[in-house]
From TrEMBL:
The keyword Membrane does not apply. Keywords: ATP-binding, Nucleotide-binding, Transport. It comes from the Bacteria. One of its GO terms (molecular function) is ATP hydrolysis activity. Residues 5-234 form the ABC transporter domain. It comes from Tsuneonella aeria. This is ATP-binding cassette domain-containing protein. PROSITE patterns: ABC_TRANSPORTER_1 (PS00211), ABC_TRANSPORTER_2 (PS50893).
């Protein structure tokens, strides 16, 4: 595994006494898309800020590209890009100048061809001479990305890239992030939206109250924690769950007309049990008219994790 970022025991206590990060350990692999998922105030922006040199950590270590950020911040910093949550630029400046200026801020030599490439990849080329204030909200967000890409970062942070944007723009943003992945850029994004993590991430970290509750491959999270709910709508109501099925996690609803299964801790266990229950029902001569089956989403998993406070 080629590691691009290593965070160890990262702690941030703000002067107010609030602990925003509480011993966070995280390793990011080169080329992956990592989604940091958490509710408001979980510590996502603080974590990004600590890596990007905006927030001074209280404790812990951060190594990026093998450099210790405390002692060798500058060389690592050039290889990191940040798309912040807030729109912050000179609204009267043109798109092209803002993006070229950002490149210069990182000490990179002017490179008109590269700026053109970035602007074209974000469909901003036709807008390059427009003042930023004249752009739509979505276009302004693209300019933020263009600025962050202007110095060719290998590691890009996107802090809630789709907060407050409409569905179309969100999908557009997902496409853009797909393009970055193809270009080999490592992306860490923060989000409140489970569907965003589900759609794009290779791995997901769940953070709450400054603690990283869980980090895993997206598919593994689903497999480990995914639950299956199946509802058998019975032809005839039952007074009780048949004895032969009491090994399964079943109960009756709708005055005995619906047999409900909830269970299966991943790895297809839920689906296998539902199939076994269906077979047992037909063996017992208990016909059912319909079967509705639902797999839990990352959202359900997240709610459970946050409620439990543990991984
Ligand atoms: N400069 C600051 N001074 C004091 N407290 C702060 C500061 N910045 C953030 N906090 C607090 O630290 C905690 C974590 O905030 P942070 O912005 O990192 O969370 P977040 O997960 O990014 O939230 P959101 O999803 O709302 O952006 C919050 O309780 C927040 O109020």
């Amino acid at each position: 595994m080629d590691t691009i970022l290593e965070i160890e025991g990262l702690t941030k206590v703000y002067p107010s006494g609030l602990t925003a990060l509480d011993g966070v350990d995280l390793t990011i692999r080169r080329g992956e898309i990592f989604a940091l998922l958490g509710p408001n105030g979980a510590g996502k922006t603080t974590l990004i800020g600590a890596v990007c040199g905006i927030v001074r950590a209280t404790g812990g270590n951060i190594r990026a590209f093998g450099h210790d950020l405390r002692t060798d911040w500058r060389s690592a910093r050039r290889r990191i890009g940040l798309v912040p949550q807030e729109l912050g630029f000179d609204m009267f400046d043109t798109v092209e100048r803002q993006v070229a200026y950002s490149r210069g801020l990182f000490g990179c030599a002017p490179n008109a061809a590269r700026i053109e490439e970035v602007l074209r990849s974000l469909s901003l080329w036709d807008k390059r001479r427009e003042q930023i204030r004249a752009l739509s909200g979505g276009m302004k967000r693209r300019v933020l990305i263009a600025k962050a890409l202007s110095h060719d970062p290998e590691l890009l942070f996107l802090d809630e890239p789709t907060a407050g944007v409409d569905v179309e723009l969100r999908r557009d943003m997902w496409r853009q992030i797909g393009v970055l992945r193809e270009q080999g850029v490592t992306v860490i994004l923060t989000t409140h939206y489970i569907e965003e993590a589900e759609e794009m991430a290779d791995r997901v970290g769940v953070i709450d109250k400054g603690r990283l509750l869980l980090v895993d491959d997206k598919a593994a999270i689903m497999a480990r924690l995914g639950r299956t709910e199946a509802r058998f709508r019975l032809a005839q109501p039952l007074a009780a769950v048949p004895h032969s099925l009491c090994a399964y996690s079943l109960h009756l609803e709708d005055d005995g007309r619906t047999l409900v299964y909830r269970g299966g801790n991943g790895a297809g266990q839920g689906k296998a049990e539902v199939a076994a229950i269906a077979q047992a029902l037909s063996r017992e001569d208990i016909p059912f008219m319909a079967l509705d089956q639902i797999e839990s989403s990352l959202e359900d998993i997240f709610v459970n994790l946050v409620e439990d406070g543990v991984a």
